Amino acid sequence: QKEVEQNSGPLSVPEGAIASLNCTYSDRGSQSFFWYRQYSGKSPELIMSIYSNGDKEDGRFTAQLNKASQYVSLLIRDSQPSDSATYLCAVKRNAGNMLTFGGGTRLMVKP
Amino acid sequence: GAVVSQHPSWVICKSGTSVKIECRSLDFQATTMFWYRQFPKQSLMLMATSNEGSKATYEQGVEKDKFLINHASLTLSTLTVTSAHPEDSSFYICSAKSGASEAFFGQGTRLTVV
Q1: Per-residue pLDDT tens digits for B52-111
Q2: Who among B91, B103, B106 is closest to A99 (CB)?
Q3: Residue partners of B22: CB distance under 8 A and separation at least 6
Q4: Which chain B residues contact residue A101 at CB under 8 A?
């Protein structure tokens, strides 16, 4: 079992719809959770971080964390073609510095 | 957010030669730097973690003699790919952090070995 799992996609949604990206993790000691967006040929950029159970909203983005289910998700409202990218879920363990990345989900927003 | 600059952005080298990639934190002191490698359509794989002034910690399967990491100052870490081969062609990305803060990524370096 991979430590951080994501559906590779592609996830295709029409412009204006809500895109829902999911991630599960295996280490129950994980404390910090991140969503990165990576455009093709570019480095990842951090779009959301979440540390406690529940929802965290930032603009069109909402991160949801459920530690009991070891599940973290990212919702993108009013999806735009410019949101088309690969979204990487990353998890940091209780101690130490290391981020563990999921395989990423490719999102395609069609005009 | 903090700025991490990686240089060069892309490089083509001949098989058997060595290539050095630089990672600089421009507006903060990076106590820890991470080096990742990403093959096409795959996720980031951590290669090594380096703390300023000490030897890098390499992930399992990463040859420390082939991928030389130097973190001699709080603003600069270098990754040298020695005796590069075509299979080393990849996207190399660094990230840097200060203390307990979050890590910020450099722009990445696309290495092509011909």
Answers
A1: 888 899 999 999 999 999 988 899 999 999 999 999 999 999 999 887 677 889 999 999
A2: B103
A3: B6, B7, B76, B77, B78
A4: 43-44
